[in-house]
Every structure is written in structure tokens, then in C-alpha cells.
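Reopening this one. Same input as before:
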Amino acid sequence: MSNVFLIVALLSTFFCFLVLFMALDLTATEKKRAVRLLEAHVGQGSGQSVSLRDEELRQSFGRRVLVPVMASAGRVARRVTPIDSRDRISQKLVLAGSPEGWDAERIMAFKVILAIGGVVAGGVLSVVVGPGGLVPVVMMGLFGFVGFVLPDSLVSGKVRDRQRGILKALSDTLDLLTISVEAGLSLNAAITQVVQHTAGPLAGEFARVLQEIQLGVARSEAFRHLAERTDVEELNAFALAMIQADTFGVSIAGVLRTQSAQLRIKRRQRAERQAQQTPVKIVFPLILCILPALFVVIIGPGAIRIIQSLFHGGPLGG
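Same output, byte for byte:
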């Protein structure tokens, strides 16, 4: 039985490493794809003959074998998932910062592959354990469901981490913007100072806002795009205030000062709310972990002596 469990563990580990290899190989292949296409076009323009077979064989194993599998899995995923699921995944990827090498089609393909792998793993595990009835079906359905929702959970976790990082850096960033504008800089120059002197996802978003403004996008539209790409409540309020200031000609310095003050108040209120939630959060660890140990230490010796006196007929004090 132990050998069978070892085989199942090795197969599961191999499958996990295979999925990881597929992700890394596809990411590296996407980076080199444009270079290969450019080299092929240059070769054709200079009169050199380009062999399609050589170009195909020059590609990596993941590009020649795994990419068609991923494409087929993506087509299957489009058929078995709701119509708007691709739009939801795309929106989540935007909120996650548009990770390089990831798109909605690839996430959906991984959902199908992991679901199939989960069903297979559940079936193998049910055969190894050997229960009867509906237990194998339940295990296969449970493992398949976990594999299907795992990519969504990973993307959602990345979205939450990025939003926490943005919220954490927002207060200092607004203070820097306020100081820069009150020192006489324009808003674009103040954003440039933020991009140059800060790091993290918020600095990257402000850099994108600055690029959009430099490309001719209206400043109000750039801030609206900023709110859509982040979906952080405090940053949405800041973007709305900047849009209104740009529309009605309100002083930017006054708006920034007001937003900084409101953000500090909200941060203090959030800290107080988290502090008030602490007693509620420690109730379950206290009941499940600390109180049983205290009961064993306090009541244990007395219970042992009572049991000895009842079953062995000895005195309670003996």
C-alpha cells in the first residue's frame, strides 16, 4: 500500500512540475517570438531562403508540442465556461498588473488541464483507498473542481496582494504629490517625481498615467483609466477628485491636501477597526488551543486522583 501511495505522490509531483514547466517555457517563448519573426522577415527581404521546417524545429519543445495542447484546452474551456468568463478573467489580470506571458486564454487552458488532472488524481486515489459507493465519484468531482478553480484563486490572490501594496503606498505617494505641487511643480512634474523616487505597483501605475498624458490622452481620462486598472476604493476617490478638479478648474494643491488629510483619517479608522476585530479573531485559537491545555494542566491531576480513588479504592488524599 505504501508503494502505491509513493507512486501516486510521484505522479502528482510530475504533473505539477509539468504544468510549471509549461508556464515558464511558454513565457520564455513569447519573449523570443517577436525576435524570431523579425529575423525571418529580414532573411526574406535580403534574399535568403527561410526554411519553415528549420524554423519549426528551432522552436522549443513547449512551443512545438505543448502550445497546441494549450490551444486545444483553451477552445474546450471556452465551450464549457460561461460567455462572460473570459471578460472576467481579463479584468482580473488587469487588476493583477497584467503579468507578463499570461492572458485569459492561457488561464482558461490551465483551468481545463488542472480539472482533468484533478479528476484523474481523484480516481487514482479512490482506487488506492478502495472505498465503495459514491465516494470515488465525490472524490473525482472534488479534485476536479479544485483543479478548475485553482488558477482563478491564484489570480485573485495576486490581485489582493497588489491592491494591498497600492493601498499601503498611497498615503506616502499623496504626501509627495502634495509637497511637490505646493513647491511650485505642475501636476505632471509632481507625478514624475513620484515615479522617480518611489517603487512598487502604485509607482508603475502613475508611470503609465504619465505616459498616457504624454501620448495625448486627456488627464481626466488617464486618471479614470488608473481607477479602472486598480479598483482600490481610496485610489478611486483620489482619481475622481482629480477628474473633478481638472474639469472644473479647482486648485490641484487644495485637492491634494484634502485627499491626503482624508486618507490619513481613513488609515487611522482602518487601524482602529482592525484593532477592534482582534479580540474576535483570537476567540477560536483561545478555545481550540489554549483552553484545552489549561484544562489539562489544572484539572488533569485532580481527575487522575479521583479515577484512582474510584477504581482502586484508595483514599482521595492517599
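So the earlier flakiness isn't reproducible anymore. For the record, The longest helix spans residues 135-182.
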